What does this fold into?
Amino acid sequence: MPSVLIVGAGFGGLAAAIELRRHGLTDVRILEKADGYGGTWRHNTYPGAACDVPSHLYSFSFSQRKDWERLCPTQPDILRYQREVVAEHGLEPIIETGTHVSACRWDERQRRWAVETSRSERTADVVIVATGQLHQPATPRLEGDFAGHSFHSAGWDHGYDLRGKRVAVVGTGASAVQFVPPVVEQAAHTTVFQRTGNWFVPRRNRAYPAVYRWMIRHVPGFQALRRRSWFWIGEGLTTAIRHPRTLGRVYGAYSWLFMRRQLHGHPELRERIWPDYTFGCKRVLFSSTFLPTLARDDVEVVTEPIERLAPEGIVTRDGRTHAADCIIYGTGFRTTAFMFPMEITGAGGRSLKQAWAAGAHAHLGITVPGFPSLYLVYGPNTNTSGGSIITYEEAQVGYIRQAIELQRDRGGPLSVRADVEATFDRETQGRFAGTAWTACDSWYRDETGRIVTNWPGYMREYIELTRRLDPREFEPV
Ligand code: NAP
It folds into this structure.
């Protein structure tokens, strides 16, 4: 029975453990550097933190709930859900928290992995890296020193009282859009620094009316229908991104109308913050509260580029100093770093850094030639712009389970064939041509411009591609 170490106890790591144990692979441990499970949902506790994917789809297909209170779950709702899933599947005893994995080395002689952790050196036949794409906060290195307080949205300082303070927020991505409205309610004044505009669509996320909650609970098939509907709504958004000249224009017009309405009476602000790229190139933002918040009298939006920090605030290129008591960085994550700086060394002493020197790539985003029995969850080119990442992760762990079963049946480690991976990568990259994703710069791209985070297609295609592992695509090591 192959032994398995999973790195990361977020949704991906939990999904992997559940899948393997359900299929009789019981020698499974999860190593987690934080002091508890939950992944990105454990760390991102900023005010207003919530998922903008509806809960019926942003949850495991095998652990559906009928008691969600609103369309999109809040961060505490998600943590509670994760706790329930962990209890339901008896995962608590196999999660080793406070265990940071710094290196995984393929041991040629033992034909298994040596895993270096902050506690001890471990070995395993299989390693699954489920560290995801959104776990390393990115804070810009700005020149100068700020004398006030500052923190990143993924490390919110709940001990700092924002009431009556002058707050500067850098960034206007999916996180900032959620935390700026509650911050503005507390702060004396808020300055929001926007580098690039965004396309918005409505999201009110009010609590469901009682009758609706009753229907979800009691009407047979209603919950399943809603899950199915949201799946296809997500696929619709992907169609718009894939076809910017046709359906993308329709979605773009919808967003345009919504934004115009939201910024009615504020033409100067509208002009300054309007996006200058194709709808869907960057992540579309779901909020009905952010744009009206920007128009408030106690909020200033600065679109002039940031030049440096000064003791009293942020200095922009026009020479203005924007005074602040606190700077909140909503500047996102080092998405293209994936699991690095963790060192991963495969067969022949070749590091994953070397293998990915020209950009990250993996067969189906899951497996890399020359790295036997190493599998990735939420790896390269598996992020979604129009669906639920949990759907992708479930597909990935099903595929990984088949690969481990194949290894068990063949009695030795396997590696995906290099030609298979190269063909997959060529086809994946080719599918971005003509899509909205290529129409601007975004966190989907690495420094060479290659799109390394996103899947260029639909959820249904990815599910189909990963449903049955083709044993001919793997070779013994
Ligand atoms: P993000 O989308 O990467 O946004 C970062 C923001 O900071 C952008 O506005 C960016 O501007 C700005 N920025 C970065 N460096 C800067 C600099 N040096 N100077 C000025 N501005 C700078 O990060 P995020 O908002 O944390 O979201 C990351 C991802 O997490 C999302 O795309 C999404 O996938 C996920 N997320 C999901 C949810 C959800 O509801 N499901 C909620 C939050 C986050 P540019 O646009 O110009 O780069």
